[in-house]
Amino acid sequence: MLKGEENLQLLDQPRRIVITTHHKPDGDALGSSLGLYHWLKKQGHTVSVILSSDFPTFLDWMPGREDVIFYPKHPDAGQTLFDQAEIIFCLDYSALSRTNILEAVIRDAKGQKWMIDHHLDPEDFADFVYWDSNAAATAQLVYTFLTEVLPHEEPIDADIATCLYAGIMTDTGSFRFRSTTSAVHHIIASLIDAGARNWEIHEHIYNSSTEKRLKFLGYCLLNCLEVIPDYNTAVFAVSKEDLTQFDITTGDTEGLVNYALSIKGIRLAALIVDRTELIKLSLRSVGEIPCNEICRKYFNGGGHLNASGGSSSDDLSTVVNKFKSILPEYKELLTT
User: Fold this and answer.
1) Which of the residues 58, 153, 174, 310 has the least number of beta carbons within 10 Å of its own beta carbon?
2) Are 19 and 36 in contact (CB under 8 A)?
């Protein structure tokens, strides 16, 4: 979907721009934001990336990371930038609630809202929309926005390519998910040609675990994993005490759910974590098992068919039992 393309002419002259993404940014959220940030700066715009929270330490190497503004730490400066912004880019989220404390700030801002995203059921809040739920990553859409949607072509440099490559790589599970089409591989090839050093990006993201994170992983595999063979399902249930014991920080649980899905025969995997203020869920599946439907119907969330998230205000054991209780509803999909 492309809506509001008449607004693209605003970029013909320097503008004051803010780039936002969802709370607790992942690789795609930060990669698409910083990739767009570098491109807009090259065009002479005044650009700020403002986040509602921190992000995983394995993303701390990205070009431009030092320029990111964390709204909770600098609310006055952040508010001023939102007040002055002529364009606010909304990347990798389709509903303003995904930005947490920035929801009201963005909604009330006078500048135009431009959404670039690939999640389902987009909220109708934006003046410009570039949306495709079939895209593998928002970083993929940022790439095509820069190279196909905008009326003028500007070269993508190494910093832009690096950020967009990281975004696509992480959201495709290193190019192994079903969303990884031939078009994605063509884009990746062009990003490498533009200067993305693919081996270095992989090292930064996948080979930078701390000792405590590896010990936490081992602990979870031994103590927190339950396999439910009747429904080809596996569940990690992680308590707040577990998080405290290993001094877990943002991003340390990233990818944990995939270990459950990697068990032979498992078709649905869940990571259920007590984050104190809320119980957070991450679901992964294979085939046609609808993670997004499960999260939307039962856990105040949503996402993609095979990868979704949700939350609950109930306690950990209640949420785990609720998740188990819905499995019979999907038995045919889970067992055939």
Assistant:
1) 153
2) yes
Q: Angle 162-71-163 (CA atoms, 0-180°, nearest 5)?
A: 5
Comparing CA positions, the residue from 156, 132, 171, 126 lying closest to residue 29 is 171
Per-residue model confidence as pLDDT tens digits over 151-183? 877 789 999 999 999 999 999 989 988 889 999
Cα separation of 38 and 66, whole Å?
Answer: 13
User: Residue 96 has which token pair?
Assistant: 């303003």
157: three-class secondary structure by DSSP: coil
Task: Pull the structure tokens for residue 265.
Answer: 């025969």
Alpha helices in the chain (DSSP H): 27-42, 75-84, 103-108, 138-144, 158-171, 182-193, 198-206, 211-223, 240-245, 256-261, 291-298, 316-326, 331-335
Which residue bears the tokens 């209640």? 318
Distance CA 95, CA 287 (A): 26
Q: Which domains does the chain have, with CATH numbers?
A: 2-206 (3.90.1640.10), 211-335 (3.10.310.30)
- Burial class, 230, CB count within 10 angstroms (exposed 0-12 / middle 13-18 / buried 19+): exposed
Tell me the average pLDDT of the chain.
94
Strands (E), 159-278: 225-228, 233-238, 268-274
User: How many CB atoms are located within 10 Å of the residue 80 CB?
Assistant: 12
Task: Name the phi and psi angles at 29, rounded to 5.
Answer: -60, -50
118 has a pLDDT exceeding 80: yes
Only one residue has tokens 């940030």, namely 37
**Amino acid identity of 6?**
E
Q: State the angle between helix axes of 291-298 and 316-326 in degrees (0 to 180), rounded to the nearest 10.
A: 130
Residue 285 DSSP one-character state: E
Q: Name the pLDDT band for 304 (thresholds 50, 70, 90).
A: confident
CB neighbour list of residue 71: distance below 8 Å, 6 or more residues apart = 50, 51, 52, 78, 101, 102, 105
